[in-house]
Amino acid sequence: KHCGCRSCNSPFLSPFQLAALERQVFDFLGYQWAPILANFLHIIIVILGLFGTIQYRPRYIVVYAIWTAVWVTWNIFIICFYLEVGGLSKDSELLTFNISRHQSWWSENGPGCVRKEASMSGIKGLDNHSYISVIGCALEYRYIEVMHSSFQILIALVGFVYACYVVSVFTEEEDSFDFIGGFDPFPLYHVNEKPTNLLFKQTYL
């Protein structure tokens, strides 16, 4: 009874999956462990929402709608982190759980960036190290990360609105089905049965 609604809803969630996977790839390249974990949870919830849409499970879609609020909050934090709002520093190791000094992959591979390595053999104790400098970047990496997070927020808001729409459609269809008689306590096929006493009289005659 819901085939028409399923067929038009299921393809819509694919852009959410693609956006989440794209974000995950670049965070993996930059060894950003906190975003990697958040992206992984986001991908799982998006798949859950897709499953709920295809299999007519409104509760799963509600879970996705609730998660979008968490996802928006997380991306607002990422924006504040790279813009260094409220005492946050983009050079801190917060996103790597303080286990590495890696930064965003875009810090060395942004548009127009040229990566140069200078040997530090002249400095005592650093003979095997090199200094890496990045020049010529057309756009600073923190603004690229901010645009990424802003796009994720936009996608999440669209997903929230669409999830509410799908749940409302499913609810209306279920209510209309109940009204038509989907849960009618009377049997579909009514058989005229004669009273027991009348049958007894006919047998006696």
Automatic annotation (TrEMBL):
<comment type="similarity">
    <text>Belongs to the NKAIN family.</text>
</comment>
<feature type="transmembrane region" description="Helical">
    <location>
        <begin position="61"/>
        <end position="85"/>
    </location>
</feature>
<keyword id="KW-0472">Membrane</keyword>
<keyword id="KW-1133">Transmembrane helix</keyword>
<keyword id="KW-1003">Cell membrane</keyword>
<feature type="transmembrane region" description="Helical">
    <location>
        <begin position="33"/>
        <end position="54"/>
    </location>
</feature>
<dbReference type="GO" id="GO:0005886">
    <property type="term" value="C:plasma membrane"/>
</dbReference>
<dbReference type="InterPro" id="IPR008516">
    <property type="entry name" value="Na/K-Atpase_Interacting"/>
</dbReference>
<dbReference type="Pfam" id="PF05640">
    <property type="entry name" value="NKAIN"/>
</dbReference>
<dbReference type="GO" id="GO:0002028">
    <property type="term" value="P:regulation of sodium ion transport"/>
</dbReference>
<keyword id="KW-0812">Transmembrane</keyword>
<protein>
    <recommendedName>
        <fullName>Sodium/potassium-transporting ATPase subunit beta-1-interacting protein</fullName>
    </recommendedName>
</protein>
<feature type="transmembrane region" description="Helical">
    <location>
        <begin position="151"/>
        <end position="170"/>
    </location>
</feature>
